[in-house]
Amino acid sequence: MSAFHSFPPSPLLAPFVSALWVHDDLMKPELGTCTVLPDTATYICFLCGDHPIQATHRHRSYTTLSGVSGFQTHRFDLESRGAMSGVTVRLTPWGLSAFLGDAVGAVAEIRVDCRDLFAPAAVRELEDHLFRLKSPKARAQCVENFLLARLRHPRVDELARAACLALARTSGALPIRKLARDLDLGERTLVRRFQNAIGTTPKKYARVLRLRDAVYLHNKFSSWTEIAYAAGYCDQSHLIRECQDLFGASPEALFPIPRGGDTDKSGEPDRSVSSRLVIAR
User: Fold this and answer.
1) How many angstroms separate the CA atoms of 228 and 271, rounded?
2) CB distance 202 to 190 below 8 Å
3) Taking Cα atoms as reference points, which of 208, 229, 228 lies closest to residue 280?
4) Could you tell me how many helices (H) and strands (E) the chain has, helices first?
5) Parallel, antiparallel, or unpaired: how do β-strands 277-278 and 34-36 relate?
6) Model's pTM, two decimal places?
7) How do residues 100-144 score in pLDDT, each as one tens digit?
8) Do residues 86 and 129 make contact, with C-beta atoms less than 8 angstroms apart?
9) Domain 158-278's class?
10) If DSSP codes are grouped into helix, strand and coil, which group holds residue 208?
11) What whole-number distance in Å separates Cα of residue 239 and Cα of residue 56?
């Protein structure tokens, strides 16, 4: 039976971690694959057990146990032959650099086994602990302790953080040149600082942010044409092209717009239709 629990991070990890998700049997057999859509966050997933995950990303496949997913601009499709149980750490956009430093760019657009980034024996020991622990809260605390012991750069790059927040306020519509000027930086300096802290360029970050926020409007408008204009796209075709490129399908295929009395004003994806999708804010 699948179960999901979300825990906030401790104050020491809060600048870098937005949530710890404890899950049991996340990959239900009837769902097949689990699709992870591009998000501005990065993720570390610690698994219990010996069932590896196969991640397919832009026609390339990666097989890992516990793994790290850096900044992504395209969807991931995950498959596992067994129950996918463990703890997934959702990091802030700048959070991964606290553990990997400037190496965040090396894990962008791929999924890397945690054994290639942390001491393999320590990762295996953590996985064994998670397997033995039955309490979701205890599992979350176990992962917190692991991360606290591996904080390499416990200070946030405030300029990169400010850039992320400024882009978020405009859903990615802020021109990069103006962003650099607002932060009193040259454009090249902004790009370099941003890449070192986030693992991608401000332009790619804004592109993902814009599309992510656009699909969250699907329960607030009656057509994708309205959503396209509300999100600042030239037209519906522009939005569809972006969604097909980054999400791998049309917006209507992923997030059907409710009709009539089925409209939900929450702004959340329709889980009854998109139960295999993972997208979060």
Assistant:
1) 22
2) yes
3) 208
4) 10, 11
5) parallel
6) 0.87
7) 998 999 999 999 999 999 999 999 999 999 999 989 999 999 999
8) no
9) mainly alpha
10) helix
11) 24
Classify residue 147 as exposed, middle or buried by CB count within 10 Å of its CB (0-12, 13-18, 19+). Answer: buried
Name the token pair of 19: 């949530």
Residue type, 1: M
| Residues 6+ away with beta carbon under 8 Å from 16 | 9, 91, 92, 94, 95, 96, 98, 99, 151, 156
Calpha distance 59→11 (Å, rounded): 39
Q: How far is CA 69 from CA 170, 182, 253, in A?
A: 25, 31, 25
Amino acid (1-letter code) at residue 250: S
Instruction: Supply the pLDDT for residue 152.
Output: 86
Phi, psi of 45 (to 5 degrees): -115, 115
Query: What does each C-alpha distance from 260 to 207, 219, 229, 251, 268 come to in angstroms?
Result: 31, 11, 22, 19, 17
User: Which structure tokens are listed for 204?
Assistant: 């790619």
> Read out DSSP for 129-177?
HHHH---HHHHHHHHHHHHHTT-S--S--HHHHHHHHHHHHTTT-S-HH
Residue 199 has phi, psi (to 5 degrees) of 95, 5
